[in-house]
């Protein structure tokens, strides 16, 4: 981190007194550590082709921020003065996307380089085709083009407004991002409350970066969030779904969850889950424990390079709301009741965040298996192990037990059964029948096993 200290000193100390207050600090190549080696070949290709065509092209956002922090950027974003159509013409492998915010995706196999044209503040346009703001301040369209200086001012946080120029290998820091990287601070550019009103998702982004980078949110940037959560309500459910994936399934889900709860935002993402946590009547906070364990589990899997599926995490987040809904359904056998409750809970949730069918289907299957896994008689156990959701459903059972639910060691039974020989399996199934029913706590009506 030494180079950043060096840098900040330079920024503070070597600043000519007459420097325009709004111009960027330009950090020359011998004063920073970003080299072309840190940048993906495809991003470099795009930068050079823009340059060769006579346009400006900068690497910006997470690409610059994460390299300065010694982290591997998740993706590379490029800003240019070329208009989207002009960028599209330069790259055969590109597509124009977006309406609210038009940009170009240049595709290289699995890697997508996002190229955005410099935007100016919407106040400079009378043309509602280009810019549109709702009465509440929300930006509905944001397609007024401008200079790189304009572009920097409409980015969200100072640490996201540093531009790396391939032409001279300099960093242009427009908002004091270098200093905030050194201070480990998330600071909004401009007046925070107005910037949240323009785009409420910035509140979620502040929390996401705080958790991901282990930074503090600057007090002035943090303070309005506590009371502005309701601004998230009109955000389209599809955009919210994208955001919750980034929030909860990027490897810092547990920390992000605590921040979302602290800032009173969680209830606008998962209202039923939030209510279940608030109204938890178990003695030992089982509901919240279950959510936290599920998130910790995903974080650990991501850290180990294993895959995580949104379906599993969403099934966990909505498990207790599902139980509460089930408790209200009367006079229905367990499986149809489960199906009804699942449908109701998902219908409620998709008002806030969409859940594509490719995720809601496996969610329902994981829930369904929670009723099936206790029923192990005859050939059932052998069939269940072969079920395509067995692994997820079994993990789910372990998670429920870890959070304090008493399932009479069901998880342990399945742990042994999975790896047991045929002979041992047969014996295990037989022993089930013989075991005298233990004294158990009265069961909820829908949980009764049929065996
Ligand atoms: P990461 O890719 O690691 O999630 P990032 O900062 O690159 O982080 P992106 O969503 O890729 O985030 O966006 C790229 C850049 O675009 C940001 O760094 C920021 O400068 C700008 N940006 C993105 N979303 C917004 C927003 N809602 N308001 C203002 N600026 C934004
Ligand atoms: Mg990015």
Could you explain the architecture of this structure?
The protein folds into two domains: 182 residues, Beta Polymerase, domain 2 (2-Layer Sandwich); 166 residues, cca-adding enzyme, domain 2, CATH 1.10.3090.10. The protein is 49% helix and 10% strand. The chain is built from 23 helices and twelve strands. The strands form three sheets. An eight-stranded mixed sheet has the order 1-10-9-2-3-6-5-4. A two-stranded antiparallel ribbon has the order 7-8. The chain starts with a helix and ends in a 17-residue tail after the last helix. Adenosine-5'-triphosphate binds next to helix 8.
- Supply the CATH superfamily name of the largest domain: Beta Polymerase, domain 2
Q: Which strand-content bin applies to the residues?
A: 5-15%
Shape: elongated
Total count of strands? 12
Q: Cα-atom Rg, whole angstroms?
A: 26 Å
Which percent bin holds the helix content? 40-55%
Mean pLDDT value: 90
Strand order of the biggest β-sheet:
1-10-9-2-3-6-5-4
CATH topology of the largest domain: Beta Polymerase, domain 2
Number of distinct helices: 23
Structural class: alpha+beta
Sheet with most strands: 8 strands, mixed
Bound molecules: adenosine-5'-triphosphate, magnesium ion
Low-confidence stretches: 8-20, 447-451
**Domain unit count:** 2
* CATH architecture label of the largest domain: 2-Layer Sandwich
CATH class annotation of the largest domain: Alpha Beta
Distance between the termini: 62 Å
Keyword list:
451 residues; alpha+beta; Beta Polymerase, domain 2; cca-adding enzyme, domain 2; 2 domains; eight-stranded mixed sheet; two-stranded antiparallel ribbon; 23 helices; 10% strand; disordered C terminus; binds adenosine-5'-triphosphate; binds magnesium ion
